[in-house]
Amino acid sequence: MRRYLTSLCLLILLFVGGMAVAAPQHDSASGQNDQKSSPSNNHTQPLTGEQVFQQNCARCHQPPMSISPRTTGTIIMHMRVRARLSRQDEQLLLKYLAP
Amino acid sequence: MGLCLSVVGPMCAQDASDSENSAGHVPVVAGGMGYIHNVNGGVTTLGPQINPVLLVPFGSHVLLESRTDFIGFFQREDQTSGPFTGKVFKSVDYAQLDWLANTHVMATVGKYLLPFGMYNERLSPIWITNFQDGPINAAIGTRTSGAGDGIMLRGVAVQTPSYTAQYSAYFSALSTINQLQAARTAGGDASIYFTHPRLEIGTSYQRFLQNRNINSVATYVAWQPNTVPVDLKAEYDYSYNGNGYWLETAYRFEKLQIPSFFRRIQVVGRMQQFFPLNGGGNSLPTVNTQRFDFALNYYFRDNFRVISSYGRTFSSQRDANVWNVGLTYRFVWPLWPERKK
Lengths: 99, 341
Known about the structure:
CATH superfamily of the domain at 92-323 in chain B: Porin
Oligomer: heterodimer
Number of strands of chain A: 0
Structural class of chain A: mainly alpha
Number of helices of chain B: 2
Order of helices and strands of chain B: HEEEEEHEEEEEEEEEEE
């Protein structure tokens, strides 16, 4: 029974992974799909604020859709400590979230 | 509290030194709240909770932050029958003062969450975690309270367009003061994040400096591919009391060509095994334990979701089904009006 369920669990994980790789992609305004054609995919170019936002927030949680500019500075300070962000990343995020 | 805010408010309601953005630096209460209905081996537990995080900035380089948990724990009188009884537990998770000196050094003093592995510091909040039951081996490297009292340095060691190397190092003193309990420990964490493949690899170390000196280590990896909304995370932990791993895969339907209602669904699978050493204990199982979980979460908004999960635990002591259903919500509330420009 245990071996069966372990195998089942692995199959589910493989299925989810396989589905993710095989799934047709939906055009989105989020910009994530545009990364292939983005000049930033050139590994020598610095990241934009949006890319820093998408990458660093998504490492742990669902990125917020919006943050009130009034609280943005404080939240980014908190996240800079928690996520160990650089000063450069902080400035890019501030410009992106509260231009 | 009011007096404190009235004194620090004008000082706090400043924007960053950089005038290239309109970001405000006002005191904020953020955090998560939710309700979890848990059934573990036939025993039902009702778990409402709220975890407010108070953030008070002093300019753009100093931040006071604290998180308090109010967690309800209600079960039937004799576990399977009778009226529900219980209480609300209150605990201060952390209360720390941060100095954001520069990219390479951020200093923290006070009570802080121990940076060991991925779960304790990053994934444990109710609104973040995909499963409301933490990993079996989450107790490794976080004795005794999950927090340390002392000093921590953290920051970015090296950053290039291709990768970022990050570190944390801390020393905690023994404390038995109410709400400030901590063990005497020292340790650190180092990770490297490869920007373009969005791959993170890290390791943590802790030396427990009480009674028996114990080394604990963790190795973890996280990967969010660019092309698909998949989140893969895995961690292996080793300590005197045992070793084990967890492996988690989450997939969101947001990119699929399906009706928008279904694009808000997230499915998650997790598998974990734990093998005790030297009798296990210290919040770890005393026998070999395996567990798998499957979750189906629905995001109404990025900060509000319905969660559900099923798991089964296997051990020589007992096999048990674990069900969770609930709601989680993330909030951000400013406490002070922004200074008018």
